[in-house]
Design a protein that fits this description.
With 63 residues, this protein is an all-alpha fold. Helices cover 92% and strands 0% of the residues. The longest helix has 46 residues, at 15-60.
Amino acid sequence: MLNFLLWLILFVICWPIAIIALILYPIVWLLLLPFRLLGLAVDISFDLVRNIFRLPFRIIGMK
């Protein structure tokens, strides 16, 4: 909702830039999507490694 309000303010101040931003937003989102997926994969792999190292301590009940 905040993004929409900011876009409306930009539209009132300078409508050509607001229209360009509206057109370019999906393109930029698609370009950045692989980096988000890569970040998710790296985060999941770090969680897996952390949980593998913590497993023995969880089994014996230490925190």
